[in-house]
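The authors assume throughout that readers already know how a fold can be written as discrete tokens. The format is easy to grasp once an entry is in front of the reader. For illustration, here is how one protein appears when written out as sequence plus structure tokens:
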Amino acid sequence: MTKIDLTKGWIKIPKTELDSLRETIFSQYKKNGGSQQLEDFNTHLPNYDELIFIIKEQLNQFQKDKSLQILIDGIQLANISPGKTFLKHLFYTKKGVEIAQFQKINVNICYLYAYGRTREELRMMPKMGGNKFDELDTKYSTSNTPDFVLSFTYNNLNEARKVENYLKQNLKVKVENDIRNSPMFSKGSISDLFSRLKSNEYVIIFISRDYLQNEDSVEHLIDFTKNNADTYQRKAINVLLPDVYDGEYNVFSTLGKIALSVHWKLHIEKLEKAFAQIVEIMGDEQTEKNETLLEISKKIERIKTIKSDIFDMLQRITGMKSTIRYDIFFQKIASLDDLVHFIPPQIKLEQNKEFENIYHSIQVPSTNNPENPEFPPKPYYTPKFPASKTIEIKIPGFKQVLLKDESTNPTGTHKDRFAWEVVIKYKALLESLKYKKLKELPQISIISSGGAATAVQNLFNVFDIPVSLKVLIDKNTNADIKNSMKKIGCTIYETDLGLKLLKPEDIKQYTDNKDGIDITYRETMDPNLDNYYDWLSYEIINQKADYCFIPFGTGDLFINILNIVKKEYFNSFLHNPDPRFFGSVEKLKSCHFIAASTKNKNTQLDKLYSSFLPTFNEYENFITELKSCTCVGNKTNIHYVEEHFVSKAMEIAKSQQITFEPSGLAGIALLLQMQDELPKDKKILIVNTGKTKSAEVLMNELEEIRNKHKLN
């Protein structure tokens, strides 16, 4: 089903365009049976009720007739309509203003009602004549000679000037400037800038550290490249400045991208700390009424989105044919033809039917709607929330112990959830094939002890993604695990993982994947990365337990859960919980989240042992911070399991027909180890991360999935 995703943000629109929109809305309203006159919309808010009702009804019918969904920031609402205050400003308060500023979502709702298309879509359409909308762009040249807009931040003015002079003097082309962080010299948002381009106009964007650390600039760029990828690919040339292709912030390096992510992480922490301090001084009641705090909270959420999406945006930009380094721009661009050469012709995805089918089969119903969950992924499975069961088990001496059982996932472990996020990233890569004549997809490398690699390769197989995951394993890995990964389709490479900490470049070198992608450190390098296990985290915290025991290997799941707890703690001040949260913030604040890990190289908990965990100190600091803010219980911590308790945990699991591998039972083992210091009448939740199925079982299940899908 086609989706129209309307996103937040402010937009400035000239009076001529707004007058045309007002007239068309009113004309459409009268056709739909509206009883008011245009002047009725000039005074009191109640007069807008009928207009709002008609817009709701018409847009609901529009979605049915066109078989599409209108989403608001990724969420489908039962009714789509603008607000009364917005309509009052549109028809009355700001009617005479030459350039008025409105929320982009409200504007696009009105465009969908009036024209059946969003503002961005209409501005990109070829002009057919006779349409009032055509009048908006008449000031632009119709020449076939390309013109350029240079888009940059103030700090990169010198570099932009050099390029501007070079283009004007050597190539004799028209050049305009767009200074992103200047209200006076910017051409609106990135969306505004691109929507005004004629067929002969292109944008040269100077990507620098300053640009990527400017909140508005990078937010607009992320939003536009994600939601208007086709337009960006056709119309943009990216000039990378030296501070993003050399040194600490090298965007071609995973560590460089992480450095940018850390910048935004520190910014978030600073704002959250200030927010918490103000709340503590003012109290909850005053907080709810304080507009400044509301703005701070919104700003925090905006920056979290920047931080979570900046990796994918950089992946899209660095992968474009029209991306060039500043130091070679003047060498390669000797003529106008050279410059235009960097704008790639659009190649239809249909030219590769195999990739097109894969692209359309990867469906993400919603990012946070519990009524429309994304996992396990359709069409091959039936998505559910919660996706796995929570059952009651018996532990001697304790009154109520629940087990969150991830063994029911497709490959038998929680790593299936991580694998699904990897597949979603691959959908973004497939999008780029519209502009590249690739014969095969980029290859992926990962360090794995079996579970993560099996989960990823299994979903590659299910979705027919023609990639063999390149897996780097320790040379002492069990032969059965190694053979199972080979049978399911992984390509195996061996080394001694205990010798040194491997960087992403090392991993790609060891796995013969120099030009590919390493996903190992996306799991472990960032405590604030929460999208791999966010749905599982909500399933866990919704249980309202007093104690929660979680296996800790790389720490990705444990830290993800704590990050979701932190998110809901701050959401509670504004009564704005995530739709997936059915629990109690007060309960979360008193819940003790306890991680079960090991330092023993020869442990039975083999999936939890790691020779190197570069962010462990950062994890400990994160836990300390949460406890100091009373976000979690004061016993929240990471503990190490003694081996003889692992054996006892396995006996209990066998006696109660629990599907497990020793590592998945680390929580039960730690509960037994700590039993003398824990109250026996509290509600205890233990996460069983499951047991990886064998390649034979998974291949049989894959055959069943394919046969069933063919019948449907």
User: Anything to note?
Assistant: The chain has a mean pLDDT of 85. The first strand starts at residue 2 and ends at 6. The chain has 27 helices and 20 strands. The longest helix spans residues 254-282.
